[in-house]
Every structure is written in C-alpha cells, then in structure tokens.
Amino acid sequence: MTYLKKILGAGAAAAVLFGMAACGSSNSSSSSSEGGDVTLTVWGPSEDQASSDSWLPKMEAAFEKEHPEYKITWKNSVVAEGDASKTVKQDPSAAADVYMFANDQLGTLIDAQAIGELSDDAAKQVKEQNDDSIVTSVTGTDGKLYGVPYTGNTWFMYYNKSKFTSDDIKSLDSMLTKGKVSFNLSNSWYMPAFYIGAGATIFGADGTDASAGIKLGDNAEAVTKYLVNLVNNANFVVDNDEGAGLAALQNGTADVLFSGTWQANDVKEALGDNYAAAQLPEFTTEAGTFQMKSFSGSKAVGYNPNSKSPKLAAQFAAYLGSTEAQKQHFEMRSIVPTDKSLASTVSSDPAAVAQMDTIANTSTLQSTLAAMSDFWDPAKTFGTALVNKEITLDNAAQKTQDWADQYASLSK
C-alpha cells in the first residue's frame, strides 16, 4: 500500500493553528509586550517572492488579517533554503527574523544559536500535520522541535511510461534493458543511494550518533563494481548538475531521470502523455539485490531567537507551515505539502505521489548533525571518478577502501 493510500484511508486531518503563541518558552516573557508597529525580515527562495502576487507576499497579507494587533512592515530578501545556514550563521543577530531552510542544516543552525525552539502549540501543529519521519527531520538531538515543515525534500524517478511496464520500474536493471536511464552519479546527494541501500550507515542507523561515524558497509565493493558496470552500460546516460539528464529527456535520448518535484513541470513538458513518476527501484549486485534509498528530509520555516520580535517571528513561521499556507504553496508553485490532510489535494499529481511514496518507502532520513558536512566532498570525488572511468573492476576494491578510509580518519 502506498503512503498516499494509507494516509487517505486514515482520513488524517490537521488543525490550522493560526494566531497561536508559537514561540519557544524561553521567549515568552521577553516578547509579551510585542504589538503595534513591527518590522519583520523574511528570507526565502526567489520564486516565492517574485511579485506581489507570489506566495510569500500573499501569506504575509493573510497573516496581517489574522493579526490586527500588529502593523507589520515586511522586508523580504532572497536566500534559498539550501543557503540558509551558511548565511544565517555569519551573524545570527543580524539575520532574518524568519527564514526557510533545508532540514539537513538543523544541527548547524542549533550550534549557531540561530533557530528557536517551537512552543508546545507549534510542536503540536507539526506533529498533527506530519508523518513521523517529517517530524523527526526537524527534531534536534535534544528531542526538541526547531522548524515547521512545509514540503518534503528528496528525489525519485521520472520515466517514460511508453517504455516500461509497472513491473519494469521496480528494477533498475530491467529498465536498463528497455530504455535509456540517466543518473547524476557525480552528485553526492544522489550517488550514495546505492551504498545506503546496500547497508552503508551515516552516523548510525538513524543519523543521530556522531560517534558512529560514516561506514560504507560490507557490500560497498560490490556496489562499486555495479556502478562501474553501470557507467559502461550503453543504455546509461550521464546526468550532471548542469541538467544533462533533463536535456536528454527533452531530446529523446533518455527515458528516465532521477530528480525531485522542482523539475516536475519541465519533465511533464518533455514527456507529454508519457509522463510518469515513481519511487526508487531495486538493483542487483554480486552481493545481492538491494533497494536504492535516497536521502530525504524536509524544507521548513524557522524563526530566529535573536529577533527583536521573537513572538511575532515564531507565529509567522508557524503560519507559513500551516495547512492553508501549504495548500496555497502547492496551488501556486506545485510545492508538495507534508500536511497529511492535504493528501487528496495532490493525489492526481504523479510527482507528488512519487515524493510521498519515496519518503515513506525508499529513502533514509538525512542526518542533521553538523558533522554531515564532512560527508559530501569525498562522495562527490568518488562519484566523479566513477563517471570519468578512473575506477574500474580491477581497482574497485582499493578505491572503495580508500574512500572508506577518508571517512574513518575523520573520527580519529
């Protein structure tokens, strides 16, 4: 049963908690006198604030109607979710009052004392709206919640449904016999899906144990050999960060693209009536058959505890993650909501369903520890070496051990 069917069958409903006292308990006394003329700085992606009709300005106007006790001057600036932590931590006292962030940055933001703990009401909102994995994605190592999720953050599989059957898409190897498969093997957010699926662990089973380190697992050599063969397969198409996979899909030289909802409209245009999406497939190595597992998490709204108006900032952060705000985000920008009560709203959208199924079935929660920053560069270097065919069947064992040793050295 897919995740979407499960939550539709459960009839999940989440409360829209507008106007709550959504500030951390530590802020309650200092913010009790807030009201009147207030300036609030908000950071988010450019697509959400391109015009006065964009999602963010509309949510700000709606929030003001809900809170006539404030006269708010809004100062919006463009800071993408992926850039939030490095921008905020430069000077938390001068950073935005409210900002959107990718949840893998949570540890860094907490260490910088740049993100506020949610109040009991806001935490209740998050828990009522979301699946456990999404709640965990904004939970610090202290067990407290620090962000209000508004969309899942992962990648899945787009495909040309005229080339593959419903059984074909369960196996990457089957798909490679029937069509052209593109994959961004040199990108360290994508390539690890093979190793994680085969047993690699990153800071323990749940990504919260820094002392456990990064371990590629007993099947890593077999996976490397599989990927060497994949790169040499005539039906494999190299994708890259410049969009080679999408271009191949558009010109008909690829039938499969691994990406996320941000490319849904482009893929739909490229494939037309043959547009389809699904959770990740399995793959078979000399060590056995394994399930590909992408990193997953969420994008969320946080508030800055250093704000001059922490109560207002916390309230607005909760508002941007509310049911109605998520619904508007999907309708305006196809941003797939995490709110379970909106499942029926997205049930006819293939990319939305694929994202939900992937998060539920074929993904692993990306660690939010600050030490996760040590993972990316070695993985990118290894993936690039695979694409460049510098790693071969003959040297796969040594190259894989060298990569593992890089991570082992970090914990010494």
TrEMBL record:
Record-linked SUPFAM superfamilies: Periplasmic binding protein-like II
GO molecular function (one): maltose binding
Which residue ranges does UniProt annotate as crossing the membrane?
none
Q: Which Pfam families match?
A: SBP_bac_8 (PF13416)
The record ties this protein, via InterPro entries, to: SBP
Alphabetical keyword list: Signal, Transport
Question: Tell me, which GO biological process terms does this entry list?
Answer: maltodextrin transmembrane transport; maltose transport
Indicate the family of this protein. Answer: Belongs to the bacterial solute-binding protein 1 family.
Q: What's the protein called, per UniProt?
A: Putative sugar-binding secreted protein
